[in-house]
C-alpha cells in the first residue's frame, strides 16, 4: 500500500511560483501513475495534471493550468512534483496527489482513477 505526503504549499502573490512535491512510500513508485488534483473552498475536487509510470506521458486540465503547470516525477527518489508558474488567485486550493498501480501508457483524469491519496497541501494566491 502506498502512502503519499504532499509538501511545498504556501502563500504567494499573483504571478508567483510554487513547486509542490509528493513523496511516496510503501510501494514500488515506478509502478504507479500519479495525479494532482485540487479543491477550492465550496467546490468539488478537480483534476490538475497526471503522469504515467515512466513520465513519458502527461496530461493536464484544459485551459486552466496548461502552459503554467508542469508535472514531473523522479522514480529514483520516489517523488513527483507539480511546478506551478504564473499563479493566480483562482489557483487557491488544497492540492492533493494521488496514485494508482497502472499500466505504462495510462494516465487517469478522474478521482475514480486513483485509489491512494495524500492529505493535501494548501496553496493560497493573493492578488
Query: Which class best fits the helix and strand makeup?
Result: mainly beta
What overall geometry do the principal axes of the alpha carbons give? globular
For the record, give the distance between the C-alpha atoms at the N and C termini, rounded to a whole number: 40 Å
Total helical segments: 0
Cα Rg: 13 Å
Run of helices and strands: EEEEEEEEEEE
User: Roughly how much helix do the residues carry, as a percent range?
Assistant: under 10%
Name the assembly state.
Answer: single chain
Q: Main β-sheet, in a few words?
A: 7 strands, mixed
Q: Could you give the count of β-strands? A: 11
Poorly predicted spans: none
Proportion of residues in extended strands: over 45%
- Write down the overall mean pLDDT: 96
